[in-house]
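Exam revision sheet. Question 4 asks you to relate a sequence to its structure. Input first:
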Amino acid sequence: MGNHPVDALERNSAKILWLLLGLALFIRLWGIGYGLPYVYWIDEYHEVMRAMELGAGEFNLSRTGKGGFYLLLFFEYGIYFVLLKLAGIISNAQDFAEQFVRDPTAFYLMGRATAAVFGCATVAAAYYVARKAYQTRAGLFAALFLAVNALHIDLSHRVGVDVPMTCFAILALYFGLRVATDGARRDYLLAGLCAALATTTKLPGILVLLPLAIAHTYRVAAMKRGSILWLTSREIWLAAAMFIVVLAVSNPGILLHFDYFSFYAPTRDEMLDNDVVMAGSFDTLSRPNLYFYYVKVLLDSLGWPLFGLAMYSVCYAAWRHRPSDVMLLSYAAINYLVFASTSSDVLYYPRYALPIIVVLAILAGRALADLTLLLARWRLVVSTALATALIVWPLTQAVAGTYLLTQTDTRTVAKEWCDTHVPAGSRVLIEGGKIAASRLTVPLEDSRESLERRIAYWRVKEPRQAKFLELKRKILAGGGYQLELVQIGSIEPLDDYIARGIKYFVVRPEYFVGGRKVKGDGARMLSSLRADPRARLLIRFDSESGARPGPIIEIYEVQPDAAQSG
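Answer key, structure tokens:
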């Protein structure tokens, strides 16, 4: 086989892997400035703020569902603090906090770049898992399929826990494969470490313990010393100790405040914050069949050609049922069953399918590698052509989606328009969270007078929120509006808002029309705005047929006496 093209592929596997990792990192870093300095991906705010709170000496023990990533952000922000202080830009922690409130761009760019690196590392992890389980060619194909996966690329742009959790879980699988074949103590410990890091990053990472238990079972069976060794093995207890200690140190609240609800996302606290939008809130009045929903997520992410190969690879793996096949299939299956069988009407998101996608990329890489081995001639040319054909769909989708992130969001355009055309100090109704306009709508700011009222309210109710508002007041240069923050489920008739002197209405129609909890009140108010002679549509911002990101935004002006004067 000396000069066979396939051998040349294997000899150059390291160079090819580096090229794939370069591609993966490039497309994940491209567009990470999306929206900044405004933040439109709501999950990002919670991770960044938790890191900042830790820097202020606050440790939220009750938020157990998501953990480790914010610790890494805390470390990065600590380095950034030192650099700013050495440069003379800030002098103390108060200045640092004001810097964040004034312009959080650098903080989010650090977090997004870190997520992109985790995404790239997951591509490398998929390669090593496939190479260990099958062969080098399978690893290269697996890395290629994951490098261009549309959903993985999208999530790797964001400050979020799903990508790093998946990375640690796949690393745990790699060491689990080594446990199944070699059973070295080092591999047991590293498997336990990575499983703990996956779990502390996001609680569903704990599902990786199933394939790790299977790996240990295969190792015990290979030693032919009886099933009692499964429990008496020193290695399994050391791995368990590693898992528990790392989890307890990195996420101590999980031992004190464990809540099954935290297995899903968002957390209970986040659900109380109206900035969070539940999946499915704006499409149908009842949740879809989640077993089909997640299949569609996989299809949309992989594209038909690669999805077809992935389904074949699942059947192929089940037929071969080698230890690696069983471990990978079990991990994909338990993730699918856990999230597809949830009884919640709102907690379903495409990101829950991420571990399944990585497993399918690995299995599809193995299937394509085995298929190309059947070719006697032109093996390299045919395998390259097939791999290229399989990635056209997801790569096209990923490039289009990432390019869109480089365009100005409709909400940013709407804010710029408001700053020019809506007088400062005007009373404006807008979709809101606890203390400010929702991150899902136009990022309008409160005026100083409006901030004073909010500070007085939150100082009694929740002092932590008041402190943040005090920082906003301190850096406020002027301008802003008297914002009336409306939340789904508490929308009043249009006449009530007009009676309170509200003149401008900034509306995201999907929020008012589609939310299940609104019980028709939002739709009635939107209809009133569109039909009432006192209300005039000033401008409407939309995505211009997909040319820019963001929702439709409508801005109305109300003249209370317009009906009489007409």
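Marking note for examiners. The longest strand covers residues 535-541.
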